[in-house]
Design brief:
With about 775 residues, the protein is an all-beta fold. The strands form 18 sheets. The chain has a six-stranded mixed β-sheet with strand order 13-14-16-20-21-18, with no helix packed on it. The protein has a six-stranded antiparallel β-sheet with strand order 43-53-45-51-48-49, with no helix packed on it. Strands 44, 46, 47, 50 and 52 form a five-stranded antiparallel β-sheet that branches. Strand 22 (about 270-275) and strand 23 form a beta hairpin.
Length: about 775
């Protein structure tokens, strides 16, 4: 249109301005007949103007007088027109759809993200769809020439093809291939300069046949690792690369099969040859077996990595002098270590037996430092028993043999020592302290009958019992009469029957209970406390644990119940409780299995009695839901929650057939009552270009409490009808912009506990594909 208007302007200007150079011919009607290049004609009846083109008259104006343009319009997705009826402004559309062909080439349509636009045939421009999966894996668009003609590229996953044909000459199609060589002894490599073999062609070859000789192209002076040929031994493999000039390079290595069977039996070893590869050879001149002839040594094993050790159970006889060095401790003196055990019995003739007692703590026995005449005396200091030889005087006479206490005489035995022996043989000690031996604890008394403080130092006091009688206690602390005058301070008793205390900064735990392994089927408790409350006015206190917290870390715990050193249930100093897995409540707590997020499990039952200023909750056995009462009342209501089965459908381009929204199953919608369904739509993909038609409906199916089924009921929703407008209607409408596509709805219904289902109805767009997503969930009201 623009070119025609410009042409008319110039044509009219020339006709009236240069009439002297143009011959004007008048016709009573349409111009006819032959004409010359400088002639024009006019139809006197209509005023139509003609020019001469190639010897024939051509109409260049319609005649009939002038006129006025009343409106200008454009073509959708090509030319946009603003103020078309007043002052038209023409512009190209932001997204132009080319009609038909461009320069004779057919144009592709429905192009999406990632598509490849290319010539799919001569004078045909087409679309190669981009791959949509697998996600995260690159797919190049590859063109494979055929018959000397280029071909459209196609998207494909990358991989390494396998050539198992054993070609005599490397094929151009073996680029980046795995050659599985199973037969043949020679492979020729074409010239690196030949068509298709340049551009750093790589391949890998595994040889499971005989020795393979690889020969590069001689005419092009190609080399393999600098040589005219290279070999690949059986069960070896090689990566081949080339520099695009004359050199083939490779990475050469054995495969697992090259090593053969086990070669590590002690008599064989691996060997290596550049011509035969890896083998197994026998070892010569090596020790094959080790043994012992007299039983004094233990040899195990007798071949291979042999270990020899003294046969400790063998009675050895040494004819030579044996010297023992300092290998018993940290000193330098020679020593012998004797383990404790049962006695050997009497020594045989001409032998001396030295043995340790049946049970003994660790100590050293040191012989006298010098020979002397007298009696051997032993002194014990810090576990070292030292011997000395000297005379022993009792009065003025040496004592030999035994000293019978009963024969001390009428005057008894006395002196400056603390021990006294009476004439009757009674031993007395006025100032003695027990430093060894065993004295019954009920005989350690003071003058008043109370047990005095036992300062035992770093020596443990152990009381062991071996009970076989039921209904008794190994150690009992009791009362001969009830205690009186006891008081409490901050809830703690000032009078106790048994107290364990430690000094400040002590590292010892005041009281510990360590129960042995319980292997029977009766669960005997590790610790138990029993009491009896027998007064209606008593506010009992079973266990009182109090910490005076003058300074401690924030994570300090008042208690920690653990299993296998892992905390199961704790309470910190701020009153916070933590359970590793779950907390179960109710008269018969359920045995729930917790997940990684923990669990709180409640037995269904009746409502608790709430108290003022409190909120109470419980699992109701009738409604099979959690119920809550607030503000100290006992008016319980269902805690609103999403019922299982919520759906999330995305990128839908068609109707969704009837499917389950809330199952008739425990914990879902199997209980009769009042329920609420919530749903919302939103658009996706590419918005439709024309939406004279195009929408989605939400259909609900349920059975009411009269057992009447309501099937595929289309529910109203609030839908977006423009960028900033909404309307209540029965469908979600597609728009020409995704920002204008959304809808949501809510619907309350009663059910008898049967299955609740949903579906969608779909009406396609006039132009384009309407794509939608849907979320829907059901909650219970009562």
């Amino acid at each position: 249109m623009k070119k025609l208007l410009v042409f008319l302007l110039f044509a009219c200007g020339g006709a009236f301005a240069q009439l002297g150079n143009v011959t004007l011919v008048h016709f009573p009607g349409a111009a006819s007949g032959a004409c010359g290049y400088n002639q024009q004609a006019v139809n006197d009846a209509t005023g139509a103007l003609y020019t001469c083109a190639n010897g024939a008259w051509v109409l260049i104006s319609g005649g009939g007088g002038g006129g006025t343009v009343t409106s200008v319009s454009g073509t959708a997705n090509q030319i946009d027109v603003a103020t078309g009826t007043t002052t038209p402004v023409l512009s190209l559309d932001a997204a132009i759809t080319l009609p038909g062909t461009l320069n004779g080439n057919t144009q592709p349509t429905n192009v999406v993200l990632g598509d490849n636009i290319q010539a799919t045939a001569n004078n045909v421009i087409g679309r190669t769809a981009a791959p949509t999966g697998p996600n995260g894996v690159p797919q190049p668009c590859v063109s494979t020439p055929s018959g000397g003609v280029g071909q459209p590229c196609a998207y494909a996953l990358q991989g390494v093809p396998i050539d198992a044909t054993n070609p005599a000459t490397l094929l151009v199609t073996d680029r980046a291939n795995f050659l599985d060589w199973t037969a043949g002894t020679a492979l020729a490599l074409p010239s690196i300069a030949s068509a298709g073999f340049g551009a750093n062609l790589p391949f890998v070859l595994r040889n499971t046949s005989t020795t393979l000789t690889v020969t590069p192209n001689v005419g092009h002076s190609d080399l393999c690792d600098g040589s005219a040929t290279c070999t690949i031994l059986p069960n070896f493999a090689s990566f081949f690369y080339q520099d695009g000039v004359t050199n083939w390079k490779r990475v050469y290595f054995p495969t697992f099969s090259a090593f053969g069977s086990n070669c590590g039996d002690g008599t064989h070893a691996l060997n290596w040859s550049t011509t035969t590869g890896i083998g197994c050879q026998a070892l010569t001149g090596a020790v094959t077996s080790v043994s012992n002839s007299d039983g004094t040594l233990t040899i195990s094993p007798t071949s291979g990595a042999v270990v020899a050790s003294l046969a400790l159970g063998h009675a050895n006889t040494w004819s030579g002098l044996q010297t023992f060095t300092a290998n018993c401790g940290t000193g330098t003196a020679g020593c012998i270590t004797l383990p404790a055990g049962t006695a050997q019995g009497h020594a045989t003739a001409s032998t001396i037996v030295l043995e340790a007692p049946t049970s003994v703590t660790a100590y050293e026995v040191q012989m006298p430092t010098a020979a002397a005449t007298g009696i051997m005396h032993w002194t014990n200091t810090a576990g070292v028993v030292a011997g000395t030889i000297s005379a022993v005087a009792l009065g003025s006479a040496d004592v030999s043999g035994q000293l019978p206490i009963g024969n001390v005489g009428s005057s008894g035995l006395s002196g400056t020592a603390p021990i006294t022996i009476s004439a009757a043989g009674a031993i007395g000690c006025a100032t003695c302290q027990l430093t060894s031996g065993t004295v019954p604890i009920n005989q350690v008394v003071s003058a008043t009958g109370a047990i005095t403080t036992i300062a035992n130092g770093n020596n443990p006091l152990t009381i062991n019992v071996a009970q076989t009688t039921n209904s008794q206690n190994g150690v009992t602390f009791g009362e001969t009469s009830a205690a009186t005058n006891g008081t409490l301070t901050n809830g703690l008793a000032n009078q106790t029957e048994f107290t364990v205390s430690t000094a400040s900064a002590s590292t010892a735990t005041p009281f510990g209970v360590n129960q042995g392994s319980v292997t029977g089927t009766v669960a005997f408790p590790a610790y138990q406390i029993q009491t009896t409350w027998n007064n209606a006015g008593l506010t009992g206190m079973g266990l009182n644990f109090n910490v005076t917290d003058t300074s401690s870390a924030a994570g300090s715990l008042l208690f920690n119940f653990a299993k296998n050193n892992t905390a199961q249930f704790t309470g910190d100093k701020s009153g916070n409780f933590a359970a590793l897995t779950s907390i179960a409540t109710g008269t018969s707590p359920p045995a729930c299995t917790a997940g990684t997020g923990g669990a709180r499990c409640q037995t269904e039952g009746t409502a608790p009695t709430n108290v003022a200023s409190s909120i109470a909750s419980y699992a109701d056995s009738t409604a099979h839901e959690l119920k809550v009462a607030t503000n100290g009342t006992n008016n319980y209501g269902i805690l609103i929650r999403q019922q299982p089965g919520a759906i999330n459908q995305t990128a839908q381009t068609a109707a969704i057939t009837t499917a389950t929204l809330c199952a008739s199953a425990a914990g879902a919608c199997n209980t009769a009552g009042q329920y609420h369904v919530h749903w919302n739509f939103w658009g996706g993909g590419t918005a439709c270009s024309v939406v004279t038609a195009g929408s989605v409906t939400f259909l609900l199916t349920w059975t009411d409490e009269n057992a009447v089924t309501h099937s595929a009921v289309a529910l109203n929703m609030m839908a977006q009808t423009g960028a900033a407008t909404t309307a209540m209607q029965a469908s979600f409408p597609f728009q020409t912009a995704l920002a204008n596509e959304s809808a949501s709805g809510d619907f309350t219904f009663s059910t008898n506990g049967s299955l609740v289902q949903y579906a969608t109805g779909y009406t396609a767009c006039s132009t384009g594909t309407g794509t939608y997503s849907l979320r829907a969930a059901v909650t219970r009201i009562q």
